[in-house]
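Appendix B: a complete holo record

For completeness, this appendix reproduces one full record from the ligand-bound portion of the collection. The bound molecule is 2-acetamido-2-deoxy-beta-D-glucopyranose. The inputs are the chain sequence and the ligand SMILES; the output is the full three-dimensional arrangement of the complex, encoded as structure tokens. No fields have been trimmed.
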Amino acid sequence: MKLLVLLALVGVAAAAVEIGITKVASPRTRLMKSGLWPTYRKYKEALRLQNKAAVLASVSQPVNDYEDFEYVGNITIGTPGQPFVIILDTGSANLWVPEKGCKTCKGKKEFDKTASSTFVANGKAWSIQYGTGAAKGILGEDTVRFGATGTNQLVVPKTTFGLAKSIDQDLQQDVADGILGLAFQSLAVDNVVPPLVNAISQNLLDNPYFTVYLQEKGATDNVPGGTFTYGGMDTKNCGSLIAWQPLSSATYFQFSMAGIAVGSYSNNKASDVISDTGTSFIGGPQTITDAMAAVVGATYDDLYGAYFIDCNASPPPVTITIGSNKYMLTEKQLKVDAGNGQCYWAVFPFDFGGFGPSWILGDPFIRQFCNTYDLGGKRIGFSKANGA
Ligand SMILES: *[C@@H]1O[C@H](CO)[C@@H](O)[C@H](O)[C@H]1NC(C)=O
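The structure of the chain with 2-acetamido-2-deoxy-beta-D-glucopyranose bound, as generated:
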């Protein structure tokens, strides 16, 4: 498996969008100022009750685990629904799938817009660059359903998404057909409304947040490995809430980490981090990850951009301080089977190039602690993941 770093690299674009936000009040802010907000809420509630099929307090979908590197889920797009396997990625904010005729998308499911009665053409171009991978194409609009056909789906009509005309090698080699970004609209390429934000503004969910539970399954492919719960907490798989942390930037799910420590090493300089389901490991500045690796006895391999550790070693836990709480990542989450009797230490050096956050809390963090991503409240919550 390849290390995935699926955070959208849109520093420049995001900055431009943020400027727009400070100047133009959101429709909600405008309605609140004019006193029309309660009326608007009632109107939305009436719409919601009318459309019985769309009434969902919260809905959850399972994800499958690929070697603890990648978690994928099912969606359908269009009418009738065309199925896709996508990465549910909190490090980006656009949904895209391959379009029929995409020459670089061999072996992947392709969306046939002529076969959907609800497809609406848009035609605007998009292109997205991730930490690993890139894709481009044109935009369209259709009904997106979270979850597989025949299950309790979250149905989001009129969702704008990308139809990929070409994808790069990183994405060609990936098991997923496409990527579904779950972060804020301000991070979205072309300022497209992300599918879940669209669901929230259509009042399809009881709460404007979702909870992610991921499991450690070792070196196996396509096995059940977690649950995404839209519109609620996950009381089945997660313990009670430890704390909410306000976001320092509502683009990624970005917040402040007070410090990081492992064994005899500690760094107590506050830094901005993001919680990213689409990144396989914990990423941070190399001067710090090197110092941490030295303490645990892991060695850096430039070819892989990763640290290797003796599979029989017992590296000490990594402790991350957020607010006044300490979150401990155990050996179980941080020692990842690499095959051939080798093991990764699931931390990697990542350079954001001077923009935004400096750490990525990827899947090992989320396997240890369920993360509740609050789009409405601009905060993130943590609770113990059962079985971690
Ligand atoms: C997605 O759908 C396929 C085909 O129906 C199924 O085999 C697979 O288990 C589903 N994945 C998840 C995560 O539910």
